[in-house]
């Protein structure tokens, strides 16, 4: 597997990736250079500089995962990635403190004119009256976007004895109350705040949230801070408001175009504090995001679920802990079920029994789909594209939960429906060991990690021996064997563990044995 690392990603993360994959670090690639080399890579790691466009994704024949060493994924065409089944993951927490502290530093620098005073002194001047500032205590801070960074800024502003009001359509009043602040509408914030800081992603809803009209509603002499994303503030409108004094000052870390156009009107203003997208640029944050993203890339390339994927439903850590041991089992059960199916699958029912029913099991159902679709599709099926691929093939997927689990702490059941009828596979964990415990009503105890042959047959003397002899003559060693404890009268199932792959012609001969209904070889080693 080959990993391409672009932008300045910390060495710690690169070292983690290098232990497992062939890693190449290439900084400052032009869009054309990226387009030319991307077909060779299985994974791509970026920060905010590299633009992962639709064209890049179209050219990326082998790409399985894009890791963003940071929060914002607006430089990645996530929709195009999802359509292609490419996982996009980020490192949402590693730079929270860095961006929070940078915001506070920007706010204080702005209030006390520190950058301008510093520049003046470097110019051999001593201008005390020119740089009189304002205090934070008693001022109202409006926080727009009360997520990780917004909440961190609010907490620190409370410590500065500011009155904090916040707007976030997805945050409840309890969260605000715990921070010692109040929720408010955008209009309330515009009308009341002395300082307003923005901490939400750039979306269709947030683009130019601060435009001419919004600026006109603000308190005269307001100060604005944007350490979230360029484009939340209309820069031309802001420049005008800074020039005419409606806005007393602004502290801006992120810009509509990065690097900033040298002709930008913001660059010529005195009442502005500017930094070149430095919010996440601390030593600690860069190690944090690089290590987090490396863990994500490693999991994704191993085919394991990724907790920080942005184009998959997120999984809470306590849920992941409970369901993670079942991922391989679920995938192998899906693989078994599709191998048993005797025609196109029209429906899949995944039933959960036991304590596992208390948590969200959607990702396990996706693991079943992954195992079921991978053997039959040309393209690689993963946790991102599996549900969409099932839907595109008109396969109905249903989850059923029942807390009671007969004989097992937790039991997974996969039922596939075909025009010919259906098949059933049940599995569980014995301690940490995965086991398939039922196939089509026949109780078995199969370790789903090796190469197995499943043969349904008539329950009468001589049938099993004939299969053994035939495989032996074909040079296939049988290293394990299970015969179902049957609940189904007249028929049974044998599951043979074999050491070699079996040629199709030999499987056909096994199927042709009188009393054998079929012979399906499943090589779990390929999962
Ligand atoms: N300057 C930097 O270097 C730097 C560093 C880290 C993060 N960021 C950016 O800061 C922003 C916040 O990051 P975070 O980690 O706190 O993200 P987060 O996901 O924890 O918080 C974002 C918040 O925005 C809210 N939100 C969404 N739409 C909104 C809307 N229309 N109005 C108001 N609120 C809305 C969400 O509910 C959420 O609570 C992101 O844009 C991120 O890319 C910048
Ligand atoms: O979204 C983020 O994480 C920040 O904007 C940081 O971007 P950077 O990794 O390019 O510094």
UniProtKB/TrEMBL annotation:
Transmembrane segments: none
Keywords, sorted A to Z: Amino-acid biosynthesis, NAD, Oxidoreductase, Serine biosynthesis
Reaction(s) catalysed (UniProt annotation): (2R)-3-phosphoglycerate + NAD(+) = 3-phosphooxypyruvate + NADH + H(+); (R)-2-hydroxyglutarate + NAD(+) = 2-oxoglutarate + NADH + H(+)
Enzyme Commission no: 1.1.1.95
Listed pathway(s): Amino-acid biosynthesis; L-serine biosynthesis; L-serine from 3-phospho-D-glycerate: step 1/3
UniProt GO BP: L-serine biosynthetic process
Major enzyme class: oxidoreductase
GO molecular function list: NAD binding; phosphoglycerate dehydrogenase activity
Keyword flag Amino-acid biosynthesis: yes
Domain ACT, chain residue ranges per copy: 452-527
Family annotation (PANTHER family): D-ISOMER SPECIFIC 2-HYDROXYACID DEHYDROGENASE FAMILY PROTEIN (AFU_ORTHOLOGUE AFUA_6G10090)
Role summary: Catalyzes the reversible oxidation of 3-phospho-D-glycerate to 3-phosphonooxypyruvate, the first step of the phosphorylated L-serine biosynthesis pathway. Also catalyzes the reversible oxidation of 2-hydroxyglutarate to 2-oxoglutarate.
Family: Belongs to the D-isomer specific 2-hydroxyacid dehydrogenase family.
Protein name according to UniProt: D-3-phosphoglycerate dehydrogenase
């Amino acid at each position: 597997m080959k990993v391409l690392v672009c932008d300045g990603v910390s060495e710690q993360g690169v070292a983690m990736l290098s232990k497992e994959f062939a890693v190449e670090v290439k900084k400052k690639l032009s869009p054309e250079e990226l387009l030319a080399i991307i077909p060779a890579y299985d994974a791509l790691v970026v920060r905010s500089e590299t633009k992962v466009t639709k064209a890049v994704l179209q050219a990326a024949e082998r790409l399985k995962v894009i890791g963003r060493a940071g929060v914002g994924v607006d430089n990645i065409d996530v929709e195009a990635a999802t359509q292609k089944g490419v996982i996009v993951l980020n490192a949402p927490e590693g730079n929270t403190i860095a961006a929070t502290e940078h915001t506070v530093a920007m706010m204080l620098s702005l209030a006390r004119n520190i950058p301008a005073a510093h520049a003046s002194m470097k110019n051999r001047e001593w201008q005390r009256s020119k740089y009189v500032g304002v205090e934070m205590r008693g001022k109202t801070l409006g926080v727009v976007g009360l997520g990780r960074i917004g909440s961190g800024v609010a907490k620190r502003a409370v410590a500065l004895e500011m009155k904090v009001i916040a707007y976030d359509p997805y945050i409840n009043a309890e969260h605000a109350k715990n921070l010692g602040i109040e929720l408010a509408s955008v209009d309330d914030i515009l009308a009341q705040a002395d300082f307003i800081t923005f901490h939400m992603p750039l979306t269709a809803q947030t683009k130019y949230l601060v435009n001419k009209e919004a600026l006109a509603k603000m308190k005269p002499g307001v100060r604005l801070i944007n350490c979230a994303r360029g484009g939340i503030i209309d820069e031309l409108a802001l420049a005008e408001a800074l020039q005419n004094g409606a806005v007393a000052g602004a502290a801006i870390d992120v810009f509509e175009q990065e690097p900033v156009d040298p002709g930008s009107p913001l660059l010529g203003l005195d009442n502005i504090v500017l930094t070149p997208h430095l919010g996440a640029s601390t030593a600690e944050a860069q190690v944090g995001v690089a290590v987090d993203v490396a863990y994500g890339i490693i999991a994704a390339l191993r085919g394991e679920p990724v907790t920080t994927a942005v184009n998959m439903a997120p999984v809470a850590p306590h849920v992941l802990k409970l369901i993670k041991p079942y991922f391989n089992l679920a995938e192998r059960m899906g693989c078994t079920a599709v191998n048993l199916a005797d025609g196109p699958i029209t429906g899949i029912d995944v039933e959960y029994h036991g304590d596992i029913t208390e948590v969200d099991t959607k990702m396990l159902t996706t693991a079943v789909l992954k195992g079921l679709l991978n053997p039959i599709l040309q393209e690689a099926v993963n946790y991102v594209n599996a549900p969409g691929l099932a839907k595109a093939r008109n396969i109905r997927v249903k989850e059923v939960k029942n807390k009671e689990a007969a004989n097992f702490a937790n039991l997974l059941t996969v039922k596939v429906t075909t025009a010919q009828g259906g098949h059933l596979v049940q599995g569980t964990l014995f301690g940490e060991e995965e086991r398939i415990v039922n196939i089509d009503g026949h109780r078995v105890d199969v370790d789903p990690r090796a190469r197995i042959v499943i043969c349904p047959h008539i329950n009468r003397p001589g049938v099993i021996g004939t299969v053994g002899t035939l495989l032996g003559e074909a040079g296939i060693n049988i290293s394990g064997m299970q015969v179902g404890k049957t609940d189904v009268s007249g028929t049974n199932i044998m599951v043979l563990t074999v050491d070699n792959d079996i040629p199709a012609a030999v499987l056909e001969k096994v199927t042709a044995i009188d009393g054998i209904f079929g012979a399906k070889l499943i090589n779990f080693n390929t999962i």
